[in-house]
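Q: I have 334 residues here and want to know how they pack in 3D. Can you give me a structure?
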Amino acid sequence: MADTRTPALRPRDEQEAAQMVAAAAAGGRTLAVTGAGSKRALGRPAAADAALDLSALTGVTLYEPEELVLSARCGTPLADIEDMLSARGQMLAFEPMDPGPVLGGPARAGTLGGAFAVNLSGPRRLSAGSLRDHALGVRAVSGRGEVFKAGGRVVKNVTGYDLPRLLAGAFGTLGVATEITLKVLPRPETECTLLVPGLSPARAAQAMSAAMGAPCEVSGAAHLPAPVAARLPGLQGSGAVALRLEGVEPSVRARRETLARALAPFGPPETLASEPSAALWRAVRDALPFASGGARPLWRISTAPMAGPPLAARVKASFDPVGVLNPRRMHEDW
């Protein structure tokens, strides 16, 4: 992401963005692509000669609720898109994270282009996939300043290389996305969350594995240790495994009973109703227990599910008693 001290170029439309990229390429200058800057703290600051600020490229260019498809320019605020979809009973199924609070920025400030650039998706990713899986088409500018488009407005539209999926998560390094077409889905009628309290990390991983192996279509799974749970709504400071079910009410009720039976060896589960469940998963999605206004470093580590507890134990063992990372202890342990 671009450093805040980097001079910015602010194109007013796609063609002007292409001209700026072409001029930079001809002059041997580098550009860092940015929008609202809500994800600027992710990774290292880009060492670029200038920032290409796409925040002026806004607006929904296509929305067909009956066809479950939406196109918008990359600078369109994600909050505006989500509000528009919610009014029609629809959603972005990949549950995009709002990184503002945890990275020290304002809430609901991100853009569609920023979400596309980092492919950062929420808890529903395990059942619905990531943003990349919902990208149908893209308009973009190449590194030579050429405007191109890939994909289309339907799911089966790719012959050859799937460029929308390639560009998603590339942080703008493979092309400057100017307009993105996404598949949208109906919002679930209701939801609930089953909580299994008091499990060790190893038992929690086993409980989540049992839940995912049951025919219940779990759409969110998390182990929330007591220190984390204390900063989350609905948990009253008690650590727990949380498992979300979504859909129409009769289906959710039947799957809840099936899931409760699968979890019986780990203890009797408690149930959070629809509204408290939604509040809990918004907080999990946005990593709110770790929000420090950007004052502390934040790591995101991906690993196999059953490898999580031993990995977390090794990370914890690398810290001194006062909570400071000790490089020597990490080197010796790893």
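Q: Anything worth noting?
A: The first helix runs from residue 14 to 26. The radius of gyration is 22 Å.
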